[in-house]
Each structure stands twice: as C-alpha cells, then as structure tokens.
Amino acid sequence: MGRAAILVARAVFPQTIERLRRHFEVEDNAADQAWSPAELSARLHGKAGLFATAGERIDAALLDANPQLRAVANMAVGYNNVDLPACTARGVLVTNTPDVLTETTADFGFALMMAAARRLAESERFLRRGEWSRWSYDMYTGSDVHGATLAILGMGRIGQAIARRGALGFGMRVIYHNRSRLAPGQEEALGARWVDKATLLAEADHLVLVLPYSAASHHAIGAAELASMKPTATLTNIARGGIVDDAALAAALRERRIAAAGLDVFEGEPQVHPDLLAVPNVVLTPHIGSATVATRRAMAELAATNLIAALGGATPPNLLNPEALGHAAR
Ligand code: DGY
Fold first, then answer.
1. Residue 240 catalytic?
2. What is the number of domains present in the chain?
3. Whose CA is closest to atom 6 on ligand 1?
C-alpha cells in the first residue's frame, strides 16, 4: 500500500512540512493562498488527512465530497470551524492543539486587558499624530488593573491561567462564570469565586471572555449584557468572534456605556465591523493570541503528531471524537 496523501491547508513551518513528508505524500500551500471552500474541497480529493487551521470550514458538504478523508488535525485549540458530529458520523477523526498555547494566550489576554484599561493604543495614536504638546493631570487616565475585579467568562485552561495572573500577580479579586464550576480546591488555589452571569457582568471591572464559540455562546455579550456592566468597565475578547455582538459593542463604546475594549477576534474576521474601527476606545489585534514563535511551533508540531498518529492507526493524543474510532466507515 502506498503512503497516505494529505493536504496542508495553510502555510506552516518548513520543519513541520518536512516532518509530514517523511510520513505522507504532502500537498501544501507554501504560498499561503486563500482557498475558497470549493477549492479546498477540490484539493482534498484523494487525501486521507487534512492539516487545517481555524480558518477552514470542515462541514458536511466538504466531507460528503471527500468520503476518503479519515482525519482532520486542526492547528488551534478552538474547533468551531469543524462540524464535529458530521465528522464523527463519517468516521473522520478530529484533533486540536490544547495545552501548548494556554500560557501564551493567557499572557496575551492579560496584555489586551491592560492595554484597554490603560488606554495604550489610544494614547499611542495620539502621540503618533503629533498632538502631544504638554502633560495634563487627566490625559488618558484609565482604570487600575491591580486590586480591581477580574471577571472571567469561561473557565477552561486559558481562563484559569488568566485567573492566576490576576490573583497572584496583580492582587485582583477574581470572579468567574462557567457552565461547570471548578472543584472547591481549584477555586481556592486560583483565588476565584463562581458567580452567576448577571453578577459577573454587574461586578466586573475587567471582563475577559475565554469561552468556546457555539450556538449557545453566540452573542453571549450583546446590548442587554453590555447595558448591565459598569460604565468604567473594560471588555476583552480573546475567544472567538460571534460571542460578542460587535455592532452592539461599538455602540456601547461610542456612547461610553463601557469604558474600553480589547478585541483579538471578530464576527466575520478578517473583516472588522466598521463601527469598531471608528471608535477610539478599543484596542484591535488580528487574532494573534497564541502568536509567539515558540507556541506556534508547538501547535504545528502537535497538529502533525496528531495527524501522524491518526493516519498511522494509533489514537492521537488530542482526539476530540473517540466515538469515531469504532465507526464502520474506518
Ligand atoms: C486557537 O488555537 O483556537 C486560536 O484561536 C488560533 O486559532
């Protein structure tokens, strides 16, 4: 039997491609072209594996057009781009890259929160415009991070890493809301207290979103939620676009119903809602939460490890749908 063929949907480290070539026939995308869903599907023909990123949509139509597909390795911890039940039903193994990006992404979430609270981007733009002529007592005054209430929506690995930074590094009071509560010992170790969502929003000085995107979390923060926050509060989203209603957020920022926001993810990215681009009190970054060289290398290597295991008949370390293992189609 010949070697399995795989498709690598986006450019990735040459070392990762070399490693994959030792196991598979590899079609890659070194030019990092933007493939349409139809082109992705066409290129996937004859391939047993797909090395994907969060930008590729793996849905029933793609799977039906490619019944030979056996595994999808997503180089991301989030996998809302993959229709997991559709993959499972067809015996397609799906993996993600958790753990290796937890601390890096928590660092970034903290940086974005601090940038919003201390008006870093806004004041830098002012300086670059050449408008800084004198010191003023109230120039770009923001809000403190240390000692403030850090409110975390979603308390998985990244949420917990942010909680640790807040409680241990900045003396913050940490509250969180999540469907499932942490064990009392974990809460104690993190210095974090579970509250209901209404309390979380009302008490937040700095609200950080770290929950996965799903139909249930779509617009979890919309006009009503923003209205229940303090006018001095900040909002940081490092999770996924669509969790926040971006139009409602832009209106709340414009009308100073909340003080500031830090956003790394957007509804319909890489497009950004024009109203967000027009308000000054928001820090905008292009989905770079996990973007350090070391972490991106680790994510790429882990995705490769998962794909090599999945197509080699072993159980991949980060298998999301073990039910697919016993599926008749395999
Ligand atoms: C992730 O790993 O989910 C990051 O958001 C990169 O897509």
1. yes
2. 2
3. 76
CATH number at residue 35: 3.40.50.720
CA of 77 to the centre of ligand 1 (A): 5
Which member of 10, 273, 287, 296 is catalytic? 287
Is 287 catalytic? The answer is: yes
Query: How many angstroms separate the alpha carbon of residue 94 from the centre of ligand 1?
Result: 15
Residue 21, CA distances (Å) to 8, 13, 48 in order: 11, 13, 14
The SS3 assignment for 153 reads strand
Cα–Cα dist 80/320, whole Å: 12
DSSP 180-247: SPPPHHHHHHHTEEE--HHHHHHH-SEEEE-PPPSTTTTTSB-HHHHHTS-TT-EEEE-S-TTSB-HH
User: If you measure from the C-alpha of residue 105 to the centroid of ligand 1, how many angstroms do you get, rounded to a whole number?
Assistant: 9
pTM to 2 decimal places: 0.96
pLDDT digits (tens, 9 = 90+) for 117-176: 999 999 999 999 999 999 999 999 999 999 999 999 999 999 999 999 999 999 999 999
Asked whether residue 56 falls in the same domain as residue 121, the answer is no
Q: Are residues 146 and 165 in the same domain?
A: yes
Same domain, 112 and 213: yes
Provide the domain limits for residue 31: 5-98+293-326
DSSP 315: P
